[in-house]
Amino acid sequence: MKRLIVIFNGTPEDFRRVRGGLSGGDRILFESLRVWARERAVESLEVLTCPSGRERVRLYAPEIMDKLVFHVLPVPAWMYRCFPLVFLWKTLVAMFKLIRMPMDEGTTLFAASDLFPDSLPAWAARVKHPRIRWVCAFFFTAASPFDSRFPYRGFVPVVRGVFYYYTQAFCFRLIRRKADHVTACNEIDRRKFLAAGYPPERVTTLYGGVNMQEADAVPEPPQK
């Protein structure tokens, strides 16, 4: 692989004002970026993101900042007040950016999530440049609003939960049909793709981004 472009554009909040915790998907991504940068797995390691995404990388993985090439997409600060609007804006701007970037068969796109701002721009670039490879992360199956265990309460959280459920269902079909490879973080999500007919050799389970070789190399303690 000569060139890897990571699309990390799905952060919904303005990180300059909201300092939230680190999600599981973000942690997996940052651990992967550390490995790719340390082992020099690619000749060019690029990140297409928004200002909030760049700030996340700077805060949680500062040691690799100088090893990454950033393509930062503009997001007006006032848009962060409207969740659907900021996602639509990020999706369209990333699409426009990617389809204009020159790419050849040595390019791989890694969508950091199945969210619209990550997966749809990768799909659009794949259509424009059919010789590139598209790898998509799928780290969390959204809860169904028709399930009694639907975790969201309150008007705004429920709207977000329903929005996520239906947009993910759309992206799942798109990823299953068009993506060259999928990374999951557990067997439940992996089996979701296998049940839909996705080839098993094209699904990789990362198990939370933990380096299992390093974990297995730790000696077992004599006393537990």
Features:
single chain; alpha/beta; 7-stranded parallel sheet
**Secondary structure category:** alpha/beta
The radius of gyration computed from the alpha-carbon positions, rounded to a whole number of angstroms, is: 18 Å
Order of helices and strands: EHEHEHEHEHEHEH
Mean pLDDT: 88
Main sheet: which strands, in order across? Answer: 3-2-1-4-5-6-7
How does the major sheet shape up? Answer: 7 strands, parallel
The stretches of 5 or more residues where confidence is low (pLDDT under 50) are none
Number of helices: 7
Overall geometry comes to globular
SS strand fraction: 15-25%
The span between the termini is: 43 Å
Percent of residues in helices: 40-55%
The beta-strand count equals 7
Description:
- By secondary structure, this protein is α/β, with parallel strands linked by helices.
- The termini are far apart.
- The protein has helices at residues 24-38, 51-60, 83-100, 116-128, 155-178, 187-195, 212-216, and strands at residues 3-8, 44-49, 69-72, 107-111, 133-138, 181-184, 203-205.
- Helix 4 (116-128) runs parallel beside helix 5.
- A seven-stranded parallel β-sheet has the order 3-2-1-4-5-6-7.
- It has seven helices and seven strands, in the order E-H-E-H-E-H-E-H-E-H-E-H-E-H.
Write the layout of secondary structure elements.
Elements: E1 3-8, H1 24-38, E2 44-49, H2 51-60, E3 69-72, H3 83-100, E4 107-111, H4 116-128, E5 133-138, H5 155-178, E6 181-184, H6 187-195, E7 203-205, H7 212-216
Parallel strand pairs: 1-2, 1-4, 2-3, 4-5, 5-6, 6-7
Helix pairs in contact: 3-4, 4-5
